[in-house]
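ok, trying the design again with the full structure, not the truncated one.
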């Protein structure tokens, strides 16, 4: 959208998180909170994105893509002040500006698009998102007059009398006419109780000037949830996790028990694969079709699994690639290993991939058989159709030739008997 730019407000301390990590960098389903907001902005095609940082801004800036414009709010004086910090970038801009909070991972891209569309069609000075909730505690209330026009947004700490009983709340998503926004924001006064400048106060200023204000109501009360505490973080995790599971199931994957299955964002699973209970699949994992995963399996970051693979109970796979038609039934660990196709990984098999200083890569070729309770001390190479006997330890640097059998501690090649 050539006439849309976005400001993301991410300067807050997140005091209630009680963390040394900026709250927008805390992960939800394997992805930092702010990344969900960045994904929304990308999906709607905003021309430029400006991110206002404050508390530990260097940590957040190190994470952000290089194409984002970073503005630092040197003193945390509230949301209106944060927007005001961006004013120099909008002096010659006459389009619309979308304002989002960096701690809202549950936003829906379709709803954000509808706000922008409503704003453009109505030619309003401001269009913002609201929701009707059973318990409005903690949220700003939407004040309307007799004709249902928006009069103001009243922050909870400033609400009095009937205002506290209003169920319609401010979600914290706004679309403004840029020039009107930056004219009016100069007139926002500091709040008497916290001496901060609230962006919400600009709504009343627009009303008093007779400006047109529009709202869009969302059906999802969780959509504007700002993650301000560990409890909020857990709630966001639960909501997004179930969205991920519903999407995966809609693509032809069986999740036997969604309540005990944890799948991060950016995971892809092929159709007719079954995920059994108490399985944890971390981000950037790829799993093929017709697989069985779990129960009690952990598939860690950057693992790739082919088709028709059986990964059973109490197994862990980390940063590894497994070809098709393999079996790893139980009590095993694969780390930093490339496994071919038609390989059997016996119960209790372990790759010792870390030597105390660095991790090493091992390779297991097609049709190899790795016996129960065996250990591969990486890096090792197991050839095609090779066999590692049960209880064997293949020491570091060992190469097991194609078709040969190794047994023992340390594992040695079993010499073939001469035929008589």
């Amino acid at each position: 959208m050539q006439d849309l730019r976005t400001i993301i407000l991410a300067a807050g301390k997140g005091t209630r998180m009680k963390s040394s990590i900026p709250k927008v960098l805390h992960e939800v389903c394997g992805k930092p909170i702010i990344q969900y907001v960045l994904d929304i902005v990308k999906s709607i095609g905003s021309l430029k994105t400006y991110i206002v940082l404050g508390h530990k801004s260097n940590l957040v800036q190190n994470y952000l893509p290089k194409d984002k414009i970073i503005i630092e709010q040197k003193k945390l004086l509230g949301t209106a002040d944060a927007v005001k910090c961006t004013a120099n970038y909008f002096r010659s801009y006459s389009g619309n500006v979308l304002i989002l909070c960096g701690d809202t991972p549950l936003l829906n891209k379709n709803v954000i698009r509808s706000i922008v569309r409503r704003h453009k069609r109505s030619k309003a000075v401001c269009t913002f998102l609201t929701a009707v909730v059973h318990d409005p505690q903690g949220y700003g209330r939407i004040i309307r007059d007799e004709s249902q026009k928006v009069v103001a947004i009243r922050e909870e700490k400033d609400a009095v009398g009937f205002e506290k009983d209003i169920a319609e709340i401010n979600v914290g998503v706004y679309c403004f006419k840029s020039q009107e926004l930056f004219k009016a924001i100069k007139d926002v006064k500091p709040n008497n109780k916290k001496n901060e400048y609230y962006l919400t106060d600009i709504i009343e200023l627009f009303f008093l000037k007779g400006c047109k204000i529009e709202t869009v109501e969302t059906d999802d009360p969780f959509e504007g949830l700002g993650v301000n505490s560990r409890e909020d973080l857990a709630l966001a995790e639960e909501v997004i996790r179930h969205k991920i599971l519903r999407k995966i199931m809609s693509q032809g994957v069986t999740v036997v028990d969604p309540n005990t299955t944890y799948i991060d964002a950016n995971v892809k699973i092929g159709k007719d694969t079954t995920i059994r209970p108490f399985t944890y699949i971390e981000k950037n994992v790829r799993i093929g079709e017709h697989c069985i995963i779990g129960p009690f399996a952990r598939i860690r970051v950057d693992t790739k699994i082919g088709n028709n693979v059986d990964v059973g109970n109490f197994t862990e796979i980390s940063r590894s690639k497994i070809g098709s038609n393999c079996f790893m039934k139980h009590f095993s660990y694969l780390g930093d290993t490339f496994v071919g196709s038609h390989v059997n990984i016996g119960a209790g098999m372990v790759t010792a991939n870390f030597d105390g200083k660095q991790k090493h890569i091992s390779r297991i070729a097609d049709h190899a058989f790795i016996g129960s309770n065996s250990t591969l001390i990486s890096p090792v190479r197991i050839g095609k159709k090779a066999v590692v006997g049960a209880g064997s330890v293949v020491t570091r640097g060992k190469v097991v030739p194609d078709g040969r059998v190794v047994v023992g501690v340390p594992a040695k090649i079993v010499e073939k008997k001469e035929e008589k």
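Keeping the full-length input from now on. The chain has two domains: 4-218, 230-413.
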